[in-house]
UniProtKB/TrEMBL annotation:
This is Cobalamin biosynthesis protein. Residues 3-127 form the CobE/GbiG C-terminal domain. The lineage of its organism: Bacteria, Pseudomonadati, Pseudomonadota, Gammaproteobacteria, Pseudomonadales. It comes from the Bacteria. Coiled coil: none annotated.
Length: 130
């Protein structure tokens, strides 16, 4: 089974904020953090310090996709954010990125296991395949 966490965040979001969201969402769903294969986000966040620190802390790769690659998942999103679209050209970063990376890694259709969880500074989603 391939599990990917998709993340979106505001610029300057601290690693502890992302880690708390990661831990809380997985705990609520009863999923062991050790099952996670990778993290995913939008290419605009490839150098975001909080995301990079989270990937290092969890010892997971962080893969990023451009808005065009994420847009093809728009019809599968649980929530479409006009704010996200205005800033990135994509209606949902966390869910779209998780779906995109699962399908890239797993070579099989992905499904959202945890739909968008949001805090003031970040969003989280979990997709899987296999």
């Amino acid at each position: 089974m391939t599990y990917v966490v998709g993340l979106g965040c505001q610029r300057g979001c601290e690693v502890h904020t992302l880690l708390a969201l990661f831990d809380t969402a997985l705990a609520e769903a009863g999923i062991d953090p050790q099952c996670i294969t990778a993290l995913a986000s939008i290419d605009r966040k490839h150098d975001e310090p909080g995301l990079l620190a989270l990937a290092r802390h969890l010892n997971l790769p962080l893969e990023c996709f451009n808005a065009e690659q994420l847009a093809i998942y728009e019809h599968r999103l649980s929530h479409k954010s006009d704010v996200a679209f205005a800033h990135t050209g994509c209606y949902g970063i966390a869910e779209s990125a998780a779906l995109a990376l699962v399908e890239q890694l797993g070579g099989a259709p992905a499904q959202l296991l945890i739909t968008r969880k949001k805090t003031a500074q970040a969003t989280f989603a979990l997709a899987c395949a296999g």
